[in-house]
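Hi R.,

Here's the chain you asked about this morning:
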Amino acid sequence: MPWIAEKSPRVSPDRMVELMEQTVAHCRRRLCASPKSILLLPPDITRMHSGAGKVTEILWNLLAPEAEVHVIPTLGQHVPHTAEENRQMFGAIPHERIHPHDWRGGCVRVGEIPADVVRDACGGIADWPIPVDLNRMLMEEQWDWIINIGHVVPHEVLGFANHNKNYFIGLGGKDTICASHLMAATCGIENNLGNLVTPVRHCFNWAEEKLLSHLPDLYIQLVLSRDASDQLVTTGVFVGDELDTYLQAAMLSREQNIATFDEPLTKVVCVMQGDEFFSTWVANKAIYRTRMALADMGELIIIAPGLKRFGEQPEVDAFIRKYGYVGSNRVMELYRQNADMQDLAHATAHLIHGSSEGRFRITYAPGQLSQEEIESVNFRYLDLGEAMQRFAPQHRRQGWNVTDDGERFFFIPTPSAGLWSTKKKLYNRLHEFARKTFNKL
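And the predicted structure, written out as tokens:
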């Protein structure tokens, strides 16, 4: 059971401070009464809207007077923060105490998820081992407390984000990230979204139990939803060191963050905030989270004023420019033929996730990428100024809207905070591999 499980229409800032004070008290009783070395593991700036950065700052303020506190944003292979981005995300926490994760050169091998565990988790769809390489500072320094902070929301790889995703993706090495993302892609993005336990999460749960049970860690899991005024607010806080902490948070997210429709949507307009989303690697969450709601031959328009690249790393950016979003069949055909696709398997998986498979149109209105660049990777292009004038996102509420000239569209201001699907696609999915996974838990 969670140490703390709070559900509320809105967890106020003052109440959040009280809950973090209770969390610290639990840590003293359960982990170490007088901690001297504490590690905080929050998400990176692409999850800024979650409020996890503010929670991290609250913990810093509570703990820094008595202990040496360090922060590692769980970047995965995302771009490390600048000093300004750290201030934006984490407030008063000193920049020198915030350490960038190096997914290539800063990890150590701690074990492996065997091929038979992978094979059993997904019914044989994937059949390779997943090496487990994790952040060297995490694994080699001595910590009295390790506090994971994160936003639980529907996710394309793990069903719901956060929990031990912080370790195996957020602080994972290249081989771990590549092997697990390719596994998720072969299982099918629409079979992962909104499931409490996906094949990859089952593997990560196995690895946490077998390889990380010695860590003095816990999880702070946040759930957010839109209130009556259409603002994202925190509605759930779950704290604890067991899997049930994640499961209770994910069940609340499933209840609050998944919208279903009787009929598919013909036009969806999303905004990917300009201070969070700078690449299609992360802005494509607009595709992932709406694809199950979109009608055949419908259109998804993504307004992305901060968009300036495709990949988070230079080699991944070049990779996406080289191959484009061409659909799973073509991607897998190319994967078998090209060494760079095999080497950057997580990027191969991303190309699969980011394609509509020709079923609906994807149109980007980017801030800093040209029409030629957008169209070169098989997206359609819309001028940002035209999109802002036509759809006026700053004046819209989530839901159905109409343009001045009578065009009806469904507006989603923060697609990364939920999942949208027809009832048929959500409830009629075949999950033989998922059922096998549940039977093992």
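The chain has two domains: 4-257, 260-417.

Let me know if you need anything else.
M.
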